[in-house]
Amino acid sequence: MGTRSDTREKIQDVALELFGEQGYDKTSLREIAERLGVTKAALYYHFKTKEEIITSLLQAAGERLDKVAEWMADKDPTPENRLALLERYAAAINEGGGHFKLMRLMQENQPALRELAAGLKGHERMKAFVEFLVDPGASLADQLKARLAVMVLHMGQFALKETDATLAQKQAAALEVGRGLIGQ
Fold it and tell me: CB neighbours of 125 closer than 8 A, spacing ≥ 6?
């Protein structure tokens, strides 16, 4: 199957597909192994549980966003840096292409996955990004626009799923809307 990381990525991709098709709770490791064409023992070498698979996906997404937060740490919230933050954020969540599936999975399986997502500091990270995008003391409407600018990067693919647009076109449209919300 190639290198260990390639195999882990294939397992993650197939697991996301099956979780999306059948739901998280209704998908077994055996089914994931069968879809991959490997034994359950081979799958166990990489992941012992489906919780480990989801956790690895959430951690990878969190690590990409941590890099964005690190970039932001020594920057002033100028209009140019706010735009750069949105662009970096969009690139981080779109890297690898599985973000839409992961977001849908988290939305559709909230009770089963809530505890796994807890503790990954997503809330604190999001608060820091939003604070960077809006001036202190900004109007409530401007505070909302800053939050929506980030949210649209996540939700744009959902909102445009009925269109014939490509994934890249949907991502570009979401970024354009996000830019507009922060006045860029």
Answer: 62, 65, 66, 69
Chain segment 121-174, per-residue pLDDT in tens: 677 888 899 999 999 899 999 999 999 999 898 888 778 889 999 888 988 999
pLDDT tens readout for residues 54-87: 888 888 888 888 999 999 999 999 999 999 999 9
Domains in the chain (CATH in brackets) are 1-48 (1.10.10.60), 53-183 (1.10.357)
